Q: What sequence folds into this?
C-alpha cells in the first residue's frame, strides 16, 4: 500500500505543494481503517474526573479532529484510545470491519526518535519484529521516500531539523500500514510554514491509505483544514460534534472553512467570556 | 535528554579554523615537552641534585637498561595482567548488578543498601585484612582491583538506566517492542554514555589500587619494581615507574575515547573532530 502511494509522489516536491494537486488518489476510502466506538468512557486521576462518560462512534477511515482548551481532557481521550491509560469506566471498541489493519499507531508532540539509531532504523521500529530485517529495511525506505526524506536514511536524528524529525516520526507511525493513526498535537512545536507542509503531507497520505485518523490539536484552523469531523471537548465531555462538508482538496482561506473556524472559536472564546459572569 | 552533552561540550572557537591537522595534534604535547626540557636543563646545569631527582635522560637510560634485561617487560606484563583481570571481574559484576538493579525493583531493594554501605569503606583500608586472607599472592591484588573498579561501574550503569528518557520507553511500549527488544534498542544504548563515565573512573581506580597493592605486598609488578629500587636508592628506576604510570594512564584514556567514539557516534558530543 505504501509502495502504491509512493509512485504517486514526486520525491522532490515538498509536502507543501503536494496536496494541492487536483486528482484525488484512487485508492482512498475506508478500506483499511479501524472503527472506534467509545461507550460511557470515563477516566479520573486521583479522584478528579478528566473524561466523563464519553459516547462516540468514529467510522472506519474518518478523519476526526479533537479540539478544546488546554486541560479539557482531549489528550487523555487520545491516550485512552491508544491504551496508554486505563479507563476508570466504560468501554473502548476497536473494529477492523473488512480488510482493516488492527494496528494502532501514535505520533507524539515530540518526535521521540531513538538518537542512537539511524533514520532508517528509527522508521523500522514501527515494524517491530515482523518479517526479515531486509524486508523491514525496504519498507522503511519506502515510507521514508513517502515523507520526502529518502536521502536522509543513513543520517543520525541529531542532524535533522525539527520538521524533518517529525516527518521521520510520521514515517515510523505509517510504515506498518496502521488502521488507526492517533496524532497528539504532532505539529505544535513546528514553525507555521513547516506546519502547513506537514498538514498537507498527513492529509495526502491519509487519503491514499484510508486509515482512521484522530488528531488532537489546539489549532482550530488546522482542525478545520484537515478533518471530516470536529469534536470540541469541554470539561471531559463532547460539547460540539461538527461535520466539515467542504470538499477536498481544501484551499486555505476558503470562506466556508473560515466560517466554520469562526464558529468553533466563538464557542471556545464565548466560554471564556462567560466565565466572569458565572463566577459572580 | 541524553543528547544534552552536545551543549555541554560546545567550544567557543571551532578548532579546525586556527589549528589545522598536525599542529592541533602536537598542541597537547607542548606542555609535557617543555617541562621535560626545563627539567633536563636544570639537571645538566646542576641546579637539581640527581640524588633525589634524576635527569630525564638518566630515567630514559634506566628504562633502556631494564628493557634490555627483560625485567621491565616482565613486571609490566605482570601488572597489566593483574589490572585487566581485576578490571574484568569487578567491572563485569558491577555492570551486571547495575543492570539488574536498574531494571528490577526487587533486585535493587535487595542489594542496593548493602552495596552503598560497602562503597563507603575505602577499599584500600582492607589491605591488612586481604593480606591475612590471601597472603601476598595474586588473589589479594585481583580482589582489591575488582572491588575498587566495581563501584564506579555499578553506580554509573544504574544511573544510566534510570535516566533513560521515559518518553522513548513509552514510545517503544506503544510501538509493541518486546521487553528484550526494548532493552536492546532503547534502554541499553540510552544508558551507555553514563556507563562510559563509570568506565573512565574505574580505569583510574584500577591503576591506583594496583600500584598501592603492589607497593605494599608483592614480589613482582611495577609497584614492586619501584619499591625494590627505593631499597637500593635507584632513584632513576623509581621515577621511571612513575613515568610509566603516566603513560599507561594516557593509553587507557585514549582507548576509552576510541571506544566512546565508536559506540556513541550518534551523539554530537562524541563525534570525531
A:
Amino acid at each position: 500500500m505504501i509502495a502504491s502511494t509512493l509512485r504517486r509522489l514526486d520525491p522532490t516536491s515538498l509536502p507543501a505543494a503536494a496536496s494541492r494537486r487536483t486528482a484525488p488518489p484512487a485508492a482512498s476510502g475506508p478500506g483499511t481503517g479501524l472503527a472506534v466506538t467509545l461507550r460511557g468512557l470515563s477516566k479520573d486521576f486521583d479522584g478528579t474526573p478528566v473524561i466523563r462518560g464519553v459516547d462516540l462512534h468514529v467510522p472506519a477511515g474518518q478523519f476526526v479532529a479533537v479540539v478544546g482548551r488546554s486541560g479539557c481532557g482531549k489528550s487523555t481521550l487520545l491516550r485512552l484510545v491508544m491504551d496508554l491509560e486505563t479507563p476508570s469506566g466504560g468501554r473502548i471498541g476497536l473494529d477492523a470491519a473488512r480488510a482493516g489493519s488492527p494496528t494502532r499507531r501514535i505520533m507524539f508532540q515530540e518526535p521521540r526518535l531513538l538518537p542512537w539509531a539511524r533514520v532508517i532504523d528509527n522508521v523500522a521500529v514501527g515494524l517491530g519484529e515482523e518479517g526479515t530485517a531486509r524486508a523491514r529495511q525496504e519498507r522503511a525506505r519506502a515510507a521514508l521516500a513517502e515523507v520526502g526524506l529518502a536521502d536522509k536514511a543513513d543520517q543520525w536524528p541529531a542532524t535533522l531539523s525539527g520538521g524533518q524529525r517529525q516527518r521521520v516520526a510520521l514515517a515510523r507511525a505509517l510504515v506498518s500500514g496502521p488502521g488507526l493513526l492517533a496524532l497528539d498535537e504532532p505539529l505544535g512545536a513546528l514553525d507555521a510554514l513547516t506546519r502547513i507542509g506537514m498538514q498537507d503531507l498527513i492529509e495526502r497520505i491519509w487519503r491514499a491509505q484510508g486509515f482512521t485518523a484522530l488528531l488532537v490539536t489546539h489549532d482550530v484552523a488546522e482542525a478545520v483544514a484537515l478533518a471530516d469531523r470536529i469534536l470540541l471537548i469541554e470539561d471531559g465531555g463532547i460539547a460540539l460534534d461538527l461535520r466539515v462538508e467542504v470538499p477536498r482538496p481544501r484551499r486555505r482561506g476558503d470562506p466556508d472553512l473560515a466560517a466554520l473556524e469562526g464558529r468553533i472559536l466563538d464557542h471556545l472564546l464565548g466560554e471564556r467570556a462567560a466565565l466572569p459572569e458565572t463566577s459572580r | 535528554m541524553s543528547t544534552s552533552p552536545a551543549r555541554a561540550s560546545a567550544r567557543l572557537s571551532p578548532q579546525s579554523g586556527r589549528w589545522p591537522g598536525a599542529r592541533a595534534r602536537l598542541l597537547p604535547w607542548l606542555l609535557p615537552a617543555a617541562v621535560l626540557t626545563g627539567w633536563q636543563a636544570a639537571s645538566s646545569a646542576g641546579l637539581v641534585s640527581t640524588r633525589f631527582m634524576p635527569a630525564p635522560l638518566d630515567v630514559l637510560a634506566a628504562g633502556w637498561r631494564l628493557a634490555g634485561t627483560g625485567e621491565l617487560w616482565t613486571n609490566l606484563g605482570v601488572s597489566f595482567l593483574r589490572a585487566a583481570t581485576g578490571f574484568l571481574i569487578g567491572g563485569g559484576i558491577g555492570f551486571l548488578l547495575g543492570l539488574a538493579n536498574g531494571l528490577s525493583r526487587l533486585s535493587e531493594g535487595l542489594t542496593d543498601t548493602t552495596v552503598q554501605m560497602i562503597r563507603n569503606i575505602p577499599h584500600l583500608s582492607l589491605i591488612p585484612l586481604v593480606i591475612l586472607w590471601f597472603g601476598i599472592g595474586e588473589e589479594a591484588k585481583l580482589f582489591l582491583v575488582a572491588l575498587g573498579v566495581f563501584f564506579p561501574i555499578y553506580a554509573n550503569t544504574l544511573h544510566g538506566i534510570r535516566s533513560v528518557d521515559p518518553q522513548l520507553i513509552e514510545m517503544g511500549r506503544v510501538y509493541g517492542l518486546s521487553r528484550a527488544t526494548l532493552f536492546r534498542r532503547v534502554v541499553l544504548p540510552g544508558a551507555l554514555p553514563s556507563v562510559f563515565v563509570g568506565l573512565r573512573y574505574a580505569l583510574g581506580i584500577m591503576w591506583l589500587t594496583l600500584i598501592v597493592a603492589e607497593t605494599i605486598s608483592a614480589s613482582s609488578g611495577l609497584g614492586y619494581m619501584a619499591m625494590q629500587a627505593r631499597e637500593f636508592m635507584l632513584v632513576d628506576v623509581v621515577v621511571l615507574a612513575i613515568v610509566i604510570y603516566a603513560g599507561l594512564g594516557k593509553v587507557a584514556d585514549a582507548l576509552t575515547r576510541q571506544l566512546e567514539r565508536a559506540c556513541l557516534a550518534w551523539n554530537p558530543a562524541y563525534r570525531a573532530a
Q: What stands out?
A: The interface with chain A takes residues 1-3, 6, 167-168, 170-172, 174-178, 181, 185-186, 189-190, 192, 264-268 of chain B (CB under 8 Å). The radius of gyration of chain B is 23 Å.
